[in-house]
Amino acid sequence: MSLVLDPAAQDLLFREARTANTFTDEPVTDEQVQAIYDLVKYGPTAFNQSPLRITLVRSAEARERLVQHMAEGNRPKTAAAPLVAILSADNEFHDELPQLFPHFPQAKDAFFSERPAREGAALLNSALQAAYFIVGVRAAGLAAGPMTGFDFEGVRKEFLDDDHTPLMVVNIGRPGPDAWFPRSPRLSYDQVVTTV
Predict the structure, then answer these.
(1) Percentage of the chain lying above the pLDDT 70 cut
(2) Cα angle vertex 7, ends 25, 191, to 5°?
(3) Start-to-end C-alpha separation, the chain
């Protein structure tokens, strides 16, 4: 059985998509980012909780502050990318549940009244949303360079607050010269899937 999605779209989103390490200087607009979000916001999360928060780093001053917290190998590409997004988990996501999960508004207190429960749920579900975001960047014809090589606590203090946990920094733009490392191997179906 083949996939329903057009093969060109499959290539754009997965087979030909790669983590970009260089970018052209073509800007990434707010309209592009909004279109990405307006697509990926429909990806599933538990209780529709939607804990992902996106901080766009646009100003030169903010970019300089962010670069200082990146691992040394990630600094040049973060400094040069047309747009950088800090993806974080909002540990107070439950405040939005009455709006997002209206058929069970008491879910806010029934499941997420304690901070540890919120942090675990926020981490899992914002990680799902971060993956959707990366695929959405690809759907916009752009390349994403997601990274976890940075000082998490430094980024949190510099750009977020105690209620937000940084997940990753994503460079975004059109791929530049020599943007890709060679494709790394993937596990086969038989290595991953077990039938019981």
Answers:
(1) 99
(2) 100
(3) 22
